[in-house]
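A further point concerns the way the authors explain their paired sequence and structure data. Nothing conveys this as quickly as seeing an actual entry. An entry of this sort, consisting of the sequence and the corresponding backbone structure tokens, reads as follows:
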Amino acid sequence: MISYKRPDGTSVEAYLIEPANPTNAPGVVVIQEWWGLDDEIKNVANRLAKAGYRALVPDLYRGKLALEANEAEHLMNDLNFGDAASQDIRGAVQYLKETGSTKVAVTGFCMGGALTVLSAGLVPECDATVVWYGYPPLEYVDAQAIKKPMLAHWALHDEFFSITGVDQLEEKLKAAGVTYDFQRYDTKHAFANPKSDSRGLPPLQYNAAAAELAWERTMTFLKNTLGN
């Protein structure tokens, strides 16, 4: 765990994992699901580090973790999304750039996906975004402010983030001339999280084939946008 400064000067704790050769390596800020900074989101960061990226996961819940869905919902509802994107996430991107990464992307899952969409417009230092099955209320998305490419993975049978909303978000981005690639999968919410099936929530389901395909597309996108 390390500590970095938000633009307003407040400190944030974060999980940082460096690749084997960190010199000039591009960076990726990884945003948690609504559970918090748990082992699964750390595993995502570790996977990115093995692929050659400096991965940083801000602790948006300030040390709190949720084990049950009602706890997660409570923590998520207490989070100020605008502040998290414009301060916590922007500060994380700035930290990676200040410590050696020329280019930095933001990626996030579920709640973190929604925050990634917000960050695309609120973090000017961000060079690319990868969204995993999550979007904020569309009235908060300033598509005109999104200047860098976005890759997004969506579940067609998502009970938390409807595919209708995805279609509306796509129209918004298209109208603003954003460079984006929306990929839709015949899956349920959280299809890339191997722990989804153990949560006891029917709307969640891990899908290994879809997850692997989404990761292949993600790695290609990151290589093309950040270099590695």
Summary: The chain has six helices and eight strands.
